Amino acid sequence: MGELRALIDRATCTPTHAFIKQLDEHGKLLRCYTQNIDSLEKRVGLETAFVQDEDAGDSADSASKRRKQTMDKKFTRAVQLHGDLDTLICTICHTKCPFSHKLALEFREGTPPPCPRCKEVEVIRGIVGKRSQTTGVLRPDIVLYNEMHPQGELIGSLNEYDLKRRPDLLIVIGTSLKIPGIKRMIREMSRCVHDSAQRTQRAGAGKVIFINRDEPPRGWDDVFDYFIEGDADHAVNLLPIHGDKAALNDGESSSAESGQDPMSITRICNPVMSIDRICNPPVDHVPRAKSTAKKPKSLPSILPPAR
User: Fold this and answer.
1) Of residues 17, 26, 82, 285, which has the active-site annotation?
2) What pLDDT tens digit does each residue of the chain (307 aa) get?
3) Which residues on adjacent β-strands are paired with residue 212?
4) Is residue 82 flagged as an active site residue?
């Protein structure tokens, strides 16, 4: 765990993180839901906290100087579905503390560090003559498989709120589609996005894009409208914020220079469209075509082969 903490400290934000941040800056991002625990979304500038602090008042009284927490469902820009490695939590008293370099070294030695709060309580109990209690150890504040998220109800309320806002575009990037909760969330969002197309009667609205190195498993044909096969950092070049020809050409040249395999799109309903075109489609209405094929066929590569 200490080595993982060190790797995260050395990690840098990717073009995909920058792309999501650009969507937010242009007012196109409803919310980002991430399974990552590296907090790179926070590092790129997306707020991950669930509540924001506000000054309780300007009074000189100490009680009035306390900060109160208020809930704003639009405040959180990135929801960390599996927690993060920024903090540690006690297995007994659930006290949280920052995942410092000192604690990371203790993890690297092979022994989880004891909870400082539990140790403090143990000392006090010894002074007053009470018997000792079990001292907890610190563990990363992340959600492991089959564990319940401590903020599950809050995340559920945010998800429900987002669905009521009728999003018209869903981009799913780099997930295995194997976690039950994630699968259910994606399907619910996809239905909501496709329903929005019927309500708005706008061309290009109601699209679901899946970007991944592997094809989606069977049973997802009615969920995704676009499948972009390849690395996410190169695939986002197909989805520029301002979809001009120069931006697409830049993506082509960068892919060729880097030696990456060209991107390909599977089961596409329309020609390649930029995020700007998808979010601001023309007035003409084009009904969404539903594919009847059991397995989509790959179309020719969008980018030229690397030289």
Assistant:
1) 82
2) 778 888 888 889 999 999 999 999 999 999 999 999 999 999 999 999 888 765 544 444 444 444 445 568 889 999 999 999 899 999 999 999 999 888 988 888 888 899 999 999 988 888 888 888 888 999 999 988 778 888 888 999 999 999 999 898 999 999 989 888 899 999 999 999 998 877 666 666 788 999 998 888 888 988 998 888 888 888 887 776 644 433 334 444 344 444 445 555 554 443 344 444 545 555 554 444 444 444 444 433 333 334 3
3) 229
4) yes
Six token digits for residue 159: 């998800």
Pairing of β 83-90 and β 78-80: unpaired
Buried b (16+ CB within 10 A) or exposed e, 12-40: eeeebbebbbbbbeeebbbbbbbebbbbb
Smallest CA-to-CA distance from 202 within 272, 277, 273, 285 is with 285
- Whether residue 286 contacts residue 203, with contact meaning beta carbons closer than 8 Å, is answered with yes
Cβ count near 214 (within 10 Å) = 9
Q: Is the Cβ–Cβ distance between 225 and 196 less than 8 Å? A: no
3-state secondary structure string across the chain: CHHHHHHHHHCCCCHHHHHHHHHHHCCCCCCEEECCCCCHHHHCCCCCCCEEEEECCCCCCCHHHCEEEEECCCCCCEEECCEEEEEEEECCCCCEEECCHHHHHHHHCCCCCECHHHHHHHHHHHHCCCCCCCCCEEEEEECCCCCCCCCHHHHHHHHHHHHHCCCCEEEEECCCCCCHHHHHHHHHHHHHHHHHHHHHCCCCCCEEEEEECCCCCCCCCCCCCEEEECCHHHHHHHCCCCCCHHHHHHHHHHHHHHCCCCCEEECCCCCCCCHHHHHCCCCCCCCCCCCCCCCCCECCCCCCCCC
Identify the residue whose tokens are 């707020």: 47
Q: Give Cβ neighbours of residue 268 (< 8 Å, ≥ 6 apart).
A: 225, 226, 299
